[in-house]
Amino acid sequence: MMPSLMPTYARENLAFARGEGAWLITEDGRRYLDFGAGIAVSSLGHGHPHLVAAIAGQAARVMHVSNLYRVPEAERLAERLVAATFADSVFFCNSGAEANEGMVKMVRRAMAKTGRPERTRMICFEGAFHGRTLAMLSATGNPKYLDGFGPPVDGFDHVPFGNMNAVRDAITPQTAGILVEPIQGEGGVREAPVNFLRDLRAACDEWGILLALDEVQCGMGRTGTLFAYQQSGIEPDVLSAAKGIAGGFPMGAILARESVAKYLTAGTHGTTFGGNPLAAAGANAVLDVMLEPGFFDHVLARGAQLKAGLAALAHEMPDLFEGVRGRGLMLGLKCVVPNTAFQAACVEEGVLTIAAGENVLRIVPPLVVSEADVSDGLARIRRAALRHHVPDTVLRAAGAR
Q1: What number does CATH give the domain 16-34+293-400?
Q2: DSSP secondary structure string for all residues of 74-106
Q3: CA nearest 33: which of 44, 17, 22, 20?
Q4: Phi, psi of 207 (to 5 degrees)
Q5: What pLDDT sits at residue 210?
Q6: What is the crossing angle of helices 339-348 and 371-387, to 10°?
């Protein structure tokens, strides 16, 4: 019989009643270290007092008024994001896919309104993930995600990630911009080299096209700066954010230079819920915490601790792991054995992680994770590895699943 809740996810048989910091707790009291953070969403962990108070207080006043009226909470949030980044203006929406789709619309419209309406195509990269709408599935380009949904939306050209020669060869008179993740999350925690990002910026300047960064997963403090691009020495023309932006409340954002944003005029784009008072209150609370002195130092310190521990484990058990990828608290453990089998072993040891592409186990704890929690998590991951240190054992476990 078909379940009432559509079976679009292969859900673990776990249900959580509450959370505390980096921990999730079931109804019967079992505790799990949340090193997945709702897929990099719960940036301040669970039950953060400042975030809880902000959302509860706003909910008691007014949750939603629609964008037919001013939303002071969203205005304040936009001003703060502009002050902290390259952007001159911000559009708020509900999700990462919506932010990415809006970003592509913005790039196309900027081209059309500057006398280049033929420039509608975006160069995208193999291994990318930009969302689940039809257009963003097409931007992603993964046949597995496109299967059964008909012809892909036209306008997206794919090249190998990190290959600048392929990028240059793909630029045509119809190219409007380049869409890239500074770190591919779903694709296996694959970092774009700094020189590659700089070369992309230079190519966009040379050909008069726009650089669009998808920072849905790697943004909002996850790499040790508010956005990952801030470690590369370049600035994009437009950027998408979501996931951790409101600490768990659904929200997305498009940040853009005036030269791009000014063409998204009244009536050209919209959203019912985006940037409503409740979402903006949550995001402002997240920014309050992230912009406190020392916050990003904490992310970098805990990231270094976690990466060193994972690297030591990979060195100790080369039959299980090849090495560690990533930056800050966006890390990936490259597995030799099936990553889903090792993910299951981690659950048995009380630590939650996320499988990603290229047989990588994604490890993205809340940004407020403590030194003790990182040590505890590393010990649990090591116990999971020790229990499955013989590759054949792990492979049999994967087959059983």
Answers
A1: 3.90.1150.10
A2: HHHHHHHHHHHSS-SEEEEESSHHHHHHHHHHH
A3: 22
A4: -95, 0
A5: 98
A6: 120
CATH 3.40.640.10 positions along the chain are 49-290
Q: Boundaries of CATH 3.90.1150.10 in the chain?
A: 16-34+293-400
- Could you give the C-alpha distances from 375 to 24, 73, 333, 378, in angstroms and in order? 17, 38, 16, 5
Q: Contact 342/394 with Cβ under 8 angstroms? A: yes
pLDDT value of residue 243: 98
Q: Give CA–CA dist 100/49, Å, rounded.
A: 31
Checking DSSP bridges between strand 252-256 and strand 238-241, what pairing results, if any? antiparallel
Q: How many CB atoms lie within 10 A of CB 76?
A: 15
Give the dihedral of Cα atoms 218, 77, 58, 295; nearest 10 deg.
Answer: 50
Among residues 59, 34, 57, 29, the alpha carbon closest in space to that of 44 is found at 34
pTM here is: 0.94
Sorted by sequence, the CB contacts under 8 Å of residue 132 that are 6+ apart come out as: 97, 145
What is the reported pLDDT for 298?
98
Phi-psi region at 328: left, alpha or beta (left = phi > 0; alpha = psi -120 to 50): left
- The C-alpha atoms of residue 282 and residue 144 are separated, in whole angstroms, by 35
Residue with tokens 């081209």: 111
Helix, strand, coil % in the chain, rounded to nearest 5? 40, 20, 40
> CB under 8 Å, gap of 24 or more: what pairs does 230-233 form?
230/85, 231/194, 231/327, 232/182, 232/194, 232/197, 232/198, 233/194, 233/198
pLDDT of residue 389: 64
Give the Cα separation of 217 and 215 in Å (integer).
Answer: 5
Locus of tokens 């768990």: 248
CATH of domain 49-290: 3.40.640.10
Q: What is the DSSP letter of 183?
A: E
Distance from C-alpha of 245 to C-alpha of 80, rounded to nearest angstrom: 13
